[in-house]
Amino acid sequence: QVQLVESGGGLVQAGGSLRLTCAASGRTSSTYRMGWFRQAPGKEREFVGSIIWSAGSTVYADSVKGRFTISRDNAKIRVYLQMGSLKPEDTASYYCAATTSPISGYEYWGQGTQVTVSS
């Protein structure tokens, strides 16, 4: 089992920045990829980006490319989502997820952290 806890959400003005943290614990040695997702009220969950734990390679959704950056801290077993040039449409609950397989879906999810961007 892998436990994930997000933190760092809050209220920020449009154009501002925020950094989310996902702290992982448990059987993290088997983690292959960690991802960030978000869900706004009344909308489906949306993929934001992900990082392959061993290689550090990242992919991003087009909607956040160039504004958001995912990084990891191997020693602390944490993943970060640095968000910049925030827009009101970035308002959502942000979730961290992890998978132990390169071909399966995300098996573990955090409880989420709320990000609100005011105009």
Describe it.
By secondary structure, the protein is mostly beta strands. The chain contains no helices and eleven strands. Strands 2, 4, 5, 6, 9, 10 and 11 form a seven-stranded mixed beta sheet that branches. The protein has a four-stranded antiparallel beta sheet with strand order 1-3-8-7, with no helix packed on it. The radius of gyration is 13 Å and the shape is globular. The mean pLDDT is 96.
- Structure annotation, total helices: 0
Computed Rg = 13 Å
Structural class, by secondary structure, is: mainly beta
**Major sheet:** 7 strands, mixed
| Order of helical and strand elements | EEEEEEEEEEE
Mean pLDDT: 96
- What would you call the shape? globular
Beta strands, count: 11
Strand content: over 45%
- Which residues form runs of ≥5 with pLDDT under 50? none
Report the end-to-end length measured between terminal Cα atoms: 40 Å
Give the helix level as a range of percent.
Answer: under 10%
Question: Which quaternary structure do these chains form?
Answer: single chain
Give a short overview.
The protein is an all-beta fold and 119 residues long.
